[in-house]
């Protein structure tokens, strides 16, 4: 009963002209959050802590969204950092964000996010979300990625109670235990606007019935538009980019806000990820070897990139779209043996750790090879491999020879790659794995103020409407960066909290 405390449910009979009567449900609350992922649940917890009545709408049958995939969150000047002498100041982080985006990012928003980030680590800690260690985003970068430790239920009672899923579990329980209501399989479909103010949300229940939720403020947190093909085509330069870990991110929140008069910002920017293939788990071992920084070529067989750009994988993600979106990673038997017997050099975040021996590579590769769908290739000679890849053997052979010379003299004559990643392609059999651009989500969305208020065409806040996480634009320029590890999840949590605080100020419930 506590969960529904204060939420008045009334049934209103609507009589449409020349149509049978339809039952329409109506609810009243203080804050409606649309989307129960990272940013939405953070907003809900914060709003409840400030004394608001909260309803959270979730399209899927469970909460979490992309938040069920992430591992760590950004903070600067946090206690875990200070305890072990990590010196990443707020000033440094703020300037890095702004300079990387060439000041295309929203300075007021970036500042509020960075300034709140350390306190958010304390806030998480108080809720029971502990930090396991602080790592980097890209190799050698600043230590800002606060990787979330397993909870007490891990692994026996709850094998998924670790990383950001631990945080999601804690948020969900907090909302349920503190009088909030989470409505699963109940997507928000429209905003209710009256006299220029947003005063609620229309949702669709699993039964198909419409539910009107009247509220003092609405926080849009539906996670962007990674799965909406039309929106991807409309806004993103390389729309076929493969979404990893996203389902049902159809841009609902962004479209609802736009309909209510909100401006959009930064819609073309996606969270470019390591290249890979569709339908593979982020920890798949064929992909793990293919994205080692050794020898990647265009469909013509020409090397096009310093493969170690994958250390900061958005760079590798950008480079592959520049060549049209298809590349092949080619390696020989000695590299396969190195990865299988000694372990990989380049980790894939927490998914495949540095030094992991790829014991499942052969299984994954051979299965894919047998499918003959153009993702995996194997040959006894470079000429034969080139033929299978529809490349001119002369071009591929020349590229291989150049790489082999660079490897022999330990100096990359083409792209200045670090010498430790220079490996010859000399011992057959030879392997090729196709690489395609992937992304972890979209980064453009509703244009917001530094306080996450949705802005109209004149740049004025739309009263009662807030947008957070990947439903909001303004944290990036034309490219995702990995300079500050944990930036997107960190932004999602902090923007959610900022939105809740400002929504309650707007509602006169907080000073
Ligand atoms: C594999 C992977 C690893 C990652 N690792 C990291 C990391 O370590 N650090 C980091 O900073 N970032 C990481 N990210 C990115 C990070 O997880 C996301 O940026 C962040 O979780 C986005 O939060 P969000 O609240 O905007 O969206 P989400 O968490 O996706 O939440 C959106 C929610 O809205 C729901 N929804 C959609 N439409 C509707 C609707 N109409 N009505 C109601 N609900 C709706 C969705 O179902 C979802 O539950 C990773 C992403 C992936 C895919």
UniProtKB/TrEMBL annotation:
Keywords: FAD, Flavoprotein, Oxidoreductase, Signal. It comes from the Bacteria. Residues 30-477 form the FAD-dependent oxidoreductase 2 FAD-binding domain. Coiled coil: none annotated. Its cofactor is FAD. Residues 1-23 form the signal peptide. InterPro entries: FAD-dep_OxRdtase_2_FAD-bd, FAD-oxidoreductase_2, FAD/NAD-bd_sf, Succ_DH/fumarate_Rdtase_cat_sf. Pfam families: FAD_binding_2. This is FAD-dependent oxidoreductase.
